[in-house]
Amino acid sequence: MRLLVTNDDGVDSPFFQVLVRALLAAGHDILVAAPKQEQSWIGAAKSRARPVHSVRAEKGLGCPTWVVDGTPSDCVNIAIGHLIDRPVDGVVSGINIGLNTTLGFILASGTIAGAWEGALHGLPAFACSQEVTDETYEDLKSARGGVPDSLAATLAVSARHAARMAPVLLGATGRNRFVVHNVNFPLHCADATEVRRTVPARLMVPGLFSPRNDEGTHRLIFSVGEDVSPPELPSDRAAIAAGLISHTVLDYTALGR
Question: Is-above-0.90 flag for pTM?
């Protein structure tokens, strides 16, 4: 398949680059349009009030690569409209550093939004994310260190899963469906790890900001929130807790049914 690949952690994210190389190794024709800088938790935002810069760059990925100084949605919209020379079969977004599970976080995810922008262009779309420990997450986000060897092995396996799953799911979805396949990989992912079909866990996430300080400002304080899912719900969060790969079909045409 000919795939447009993006993410929200930025074009230099090692998780993103592992995915691109796995897709290439699987024989796919890959085009990259990714943010210049991290764009996490920005959802489906587009840069309305400023110009957006794009440039073709050599990032050593072995495929045409554009760096866009904007959001994941900007990247996909601009790439499809102006950067790529012929149509693609689908959009792949990831691998995100950290999970994108539950109702509390899916709509805020820049990774899922990059895939959703593909769906808005009538394309089948696939987003994927990797569970990491809190310590590893902080190290990667602050550039204090590279990917630990133990996680690098898991990440390589997750990327192979993604390269196998993406074309199957995209090919089965078809065009103009407004569907995003949201896949999350557990911390210890193996070649034999089972894929479970899931729905988003029902997570309440209040109080994400600190109280107002003397300067009148508030700062984000991450919280995992409160899971109010019924115990019988086959949720994405439960699948990850069980060490399984979670596959959630985000069908936006089902809203309001």
Answer: yes
